[in-house]
Amino acid sequence: MAVFVFIEHREGKLMDISFESLSAAQKLNDTVVAVVAGENVSDLAEKVAKYADKVIVAEDPKIDTNNEAYTRVLNELIKKEKPKVVIMGHSSMGMDIAPALSVDLGLPIATDVVKINPEGGKIKVTRSIYNGKVLADYNLKNADTYIITIRAGEFSADDLKEKNGKIEIVDSLLKDEVADKKFVGYVQPVVGAVDITQADILVSVGRGIKDKENIPLAEELAKTMGGVLSCSRPIVDYGWLPKERQVGTSGKTVKPKLYLALGISGAFQHVAGMKGANMIVAVNKDPKAPIFSVAQYGIVDDILKVIPALTQKVKEIKG
Ligand SMILES: Cc1cc2nc3c(=O)[nH]c(=O)nc-3n(C[C@H](O)[C@H](O)[C@H](O)COP(=O)(O)OP(=O)(O)OC[C@H]3O[C@@H](n4cnc5c(N)ncnc54)[C@H](O)[C@@H]3O)c2cc1C
């Protein structure tokens, strides 16, 4: 039985979620078949082949960055190859393609999955619900093929094993141009002066900071520690810090040596962007805050007390 992995790529680059999807597929101990579709994708297929038993390449300029086109290609391939599982990212692309496939082919779907457990011929999945407070197991009803989208950051690409699979080029599976949906172009965000993805130390503030007036407190701590200030999404929504400082699924993915989370609850959209940090220290007045489940060290207290105390201590240590 094969496990299909839909490979996401953009402007000639493979997206991180593609490697995470391959990692999820490898854990099922089945034949991993990656599907790479689009225009000029042979280089990408070679990179992917390192981690798959087989790569199916559907090269066609008509496919060109159009989710409807990818859906039609996958639809044809699933009907032909009948994989046991189809895995893709719970990204904006996966959220568009996977439900459409499920409806078109009448297949069960599990979305935003954090764990996949095969049991005999059946598939059980785990989803994290209520903002990360509950992990729920689901049994999927018996079917020939299951469609699963995985949450970013849950299946580490570091676990990937090398496979060096073969590449199979298939004839274009897109019979007609997609007439009702056209790709117009990418709009790149403006590159800011600060790149939080490059920082070794991130001091990150969340809604617990309470007021814009308190941001300089955290800024001073970041500066004293030789780090950079980042934040959760509400802080950007309030206009207290610019978007380039936001960590999370709709912000940046960061992997600093130290991530200090101050007054951040630990919603999965935030955690997905920072759980790859080497060391996570969280300060939160709520001992049950989900952020403590990803932190190595935690302080249960008011950040408005802890931040000045930490700044003072670091200053003392640095002399
Ligand atoms: C499509 C989508 C995309 C999203 N993308 C992102 C994203 O990229 N990044 C992101 O961060 N969020 C994102 N979110 C929002 C996310 O769901 C959460 O709402 C957000 O992360 C919560 O931010 P927070 O932890 O700062 O605030 P809250 O959830 O309000 O948590 C504040 C925390 O501060 C603590 N606190 C309060 N006062 C103090 C104090 N004085 N001292 C110590 N602790 C205190 C509280 O106990 C609480 O745990 C997204 C949501 C959606 C729907």
Uncertain regions: pLDDT < 50 for 5+ in a row?
none
Strand order of the largest sheet: 9-8-7-10-6-1-4-5-11
DSSP strand content: 25-35%
Mean pLDDT equals 93
The secondary-structure element order is EEEHEHEHEHEEEEEEHEHEHEEH
Number of helices: 8
Q: Indicate the structural class.
A: alpha/beta
Q: Can you identify the CATH superfamily of the largest domain?
A: HUPs
* Ligand kinds: flavin-adenine dinucleotide
Intertermini distance: 63 Å
Give the number of domains: 2
Q: Give the oligomeric state.
A: single chain
| Number of DSSP strand runs | 16
Shape descriptor: elongated
CATH domain class of the largest domain? Alpha Beta
Radius of gyration: 22 Å
